[in-house]
Amino acid sequence: MHSAQFTSGAGEPAVVVTRVSETRWHAVEDDRVVGHGDTSGRPDGRMFISVDAWHGAAFARLADAMLADLPRPLHTLVDEDDLDLAAHWERAGFTTRRREREYLLPTDPEVTGLGPVPPPEGVTIVAAGEVEEGPLRTLDRAIRDEVEATVGWQEMPAEVVPLPAGVTVLDPSKYVVAAQAGEYVGLLRLAPVVRQPRIGLVAVRSDRRRRGVARALLAHVLGSLHRQGVERASAEVNESNRAAMALFEGVGARCTSRNLELVLR
């Protein structure tokens, strides 16, 4: 890989930035690593970058080196309350693209009010581990095509697990689905993160929405977690997705943070 030397100012030690791999850069000052930058590709093609540095000068040198090496557009995520970090990225030329809300959802049916909620008439819930892979992939592709034809998949919550090109369902065992008339019509993906599972996606085919399918999926998953002794699950939602926010807030979800997705085009 290569190195680039930047001076922080007159009389100050030089900060040497080295690209140590395809996805990581190191900033070294006085033989100490004082920061690192990383990249990660998302399934929808977005490239996200992050920088963790001891001080502002190291951050700026890392950002300069990464931006010089990488193609545009580039994206990054920042807690809306982290004004210093947001300012660093704005000085590098990034602007706000969208906002996401981070939620914590209770699992207790007494709190969510989902205990007595049955699935809509004719709809059955297929539990995780019992979902058939072929119909699941067909549903996933249909939902993605519907989203792409409207707002675009890039408006969905940022997906954090890089997948091979063309692969959108990596592990069918993480999905719960709603079935009706012999086909799958809705899905919920649950990442079994230690101590606090994460709801990665809730989606229903456009011709089956507003019938309670998403609520039934949520009732099944949260109820199952509660029986396992799990008290809360997390989820993130684009603030433009009013329906999803209403769904989560309607079962007692609490917004714990707001994230900014910044972009440099």
The CATH topology assignment of the largest domain is Aminopeptidase
| CATH classification, class level of the largest domain | Alpha Beta
- Structural class comes to alpha+beta
Q: How would you characterize the largest beta sheet?
A: 8 strands, mixed
**Overall 3D shape:** elongated
Mean pLDDT over the residues: 87
**Which value, in Å, is the CA radius of gyration?**
22 Å
> Helicity range of the residues?
10-25%
Strand numbers in spatial order across the main sheet = 6-13-7-12-11-10-9-8
* Fraction in beta strands: 35-45%
Q: What is the overall number of helices? A: 6
Stretches with pLDDT under 50, minimum 5 residues: 158-164
Could you characterize the architecture of this molecule?
- This protein has 265 residues and is α+β, with helices and mostly antiparallel strands.
- The chain has two domains: 3-100, 3-Layer(aba) Sandwich (Aminopeptidase); 102-259, Aminopeptidase, CATH 3.40.630.
- It is 25% helix and 36% strand.
- The protein contains six helices and 13 strands.
- It has helices at residues 56-69, 83-91, 109-112, 133-148, 213-227, 242-249, and strands at residues 3-7, 14-19, 24-29, 32-41, 47-53, 74-79, 95-106, 123-126, 175-180, 183-191, 198-204, 232-238, 254-264.
- The strands form two sheets. It has an eight-stranded mixed beta sheet with strand order 6-13-7-12-11-10-9-8, with helices on both faces. The chain has a five-stranded antiparallel beta sheet with strand order 1-2-3-4-5, covered by helices on one side.
- Helix 5 (213-227) links the parallel strand 11 and strand 12.
- The radius of gyration is 22 Å and the shape is elongated.
- The two termini are 25 Å apart.
- The model is unreliable at 158-164 (pLDDT under 50).
- Its EC number is 2.3.1.-.
- Keywords: Acyltransferase, Transferase.
- Pfam families: Acetyltransf_1.
- GO terms for molecular function: acyltransferase activity.
- It is an enzyme of class 2 (transferase).
